[in-house]
Amino acid sequence: MSKMQKKQDIIDHAFELFYDQGFNTGVDAIMADTGISKRTLYKYFPSKEVLIAELVEHYRVNVIPLLRAEVERVSPDPKGRLIALFDVRQAKFTEGCFRGCFAVSAKLEYACRNAQIEAASEAMMADMNGLMRAFCEMTGHPDPDTLTAQAMVLFNGAVVAAQASRSAKPFDTAKGILRVLLSFPLP
Amino acid sequence: MSKMQKKQDIIDHAFELFYDQGFNTGVDAIMADTGISKRTLYKYFPSKEVLIAELVEHYRVNVIPLLRAEVERVSPDPKGRLIALFDVRQAKFTEGCFRGCFAVSAKLEYACRNAQIEAASEAMMADMNGLMRAFCEMTGHPDPDTLTAQAMVLFNGAVVAAQASRSAKPFDTAKGILRVLLSFPLP
DNA sequence: CGAAAAGTAAACCGATCTGTTTACATAACG
DNA sequence: CGTTATGTAAACAGATCGGTTTACTTTTCG
């Protein structure tokens, strides 16, 4: 196994652990899960917080293009991609594969405590905003800026409401609102 | 100082600490902040997690009526109370006095780990839903159930987006959407 | 082959955590 | 006054944490 593969292996296991058990999971769990010693872990990552920052960066670099590709596959019509974005996330949530935005969780956990993690989270959120804006523009809506801000509120609201209520219904609600906004675009 | 006053004193200090420093704050900080010894703390609360569960319960019992009263004060007209609820939360956020829903934070932190805290959080969220529904009914909207679900998504979305972006703008966005929904009530 | 690199397992460090206990001071109250 | 409850301060227990180091084994590769 090459160096890059091993580093990727650590990233994959650590991400899974932090994603569904929270950032207070100990490094011992990562070692055991990945099957490496502590010395190796600290050879690849100088500290746990640097590892987390790299996880957020990895999330940004991988999830955004993956999400875009999946939305384009589900909705060949560009006009429908805004709704399709919600559909894709809702489907992942229903399958139990989606547990909220990793970057948002990291940002809330390390707010005012770790600048590197905060910066990585902000970069991810900026990318997400860009993706949302691209889909909003495709709808032909006359005010894509406003629509983007609205869609971000709806997206975040659906995610957190779904997490808290353990139900995918908030996604249906959010999509219903989006359709209203697309039909009556002038607040 | 009576027993109840002292217990309340602990609750107040612990709540403040957990609210803006997270649930991983140590009990030592609570002792120092309240000005009591560890023995006294553990006389009133058998464990840290029980204390947190009682904090969530205390949040529910106090915040909901307070919120309702404040909204009624701001909006004498029942029809405007749904928007006023967002205004009140936005104002608290702008003043720096609002840092998200304590119950949602607790639920996300102790999901699948502490049933008592989870139950208290769910009770709080149910009360919040009831408050939201009452305000939705006052608007005269023909489908208060749907409106309530929509308002909850918007509220949660505004809160988390505001927290993540350190800006109150998402509240304006959410209120704009609400006004649209109230004007064009049929999706 | 044989040296260098990279790995594991485990001890270890110092700090921190929840929670208990001991020793002592203080206040209430008959 | 003396007893009892209630408090503090601090030591202590046992665990876990992030992180380092040591001793030894495996792999890689000229």
TrEMBL record, chains A, B:
**Residues in the DNA-binding region annotation:** 26-45
Pfam families in the record: TetR_N
What InterPro entries has UniProt attached to this entry?
A: Homeodomain-like_sf (IPR009057), HTH_TetR (IPR001647), Tet_transcr_reg_TetR-rel_C_sf (IPR036271)
Output the PROSITE patterns linked to this UniProt entry.
HTH_TETR_2
Name the keywords, alphabetized. Answer: DNA-binding, Transcription, Transcription regulation
Where is each HTH tetR-type domain found?
4-63
PANTHER family linked to this entry: HTH-TYPE TRANSCRIPTIONAL REGULATOR YJDC, TRANSCRIPTIONAL REGULATORY PROTEIN
Q: What is this protein called?
A: TetR/AcrR family transcriptional regulator
Naturally occurring in which organism (per UniProt): Asticcacaulis aquaticus
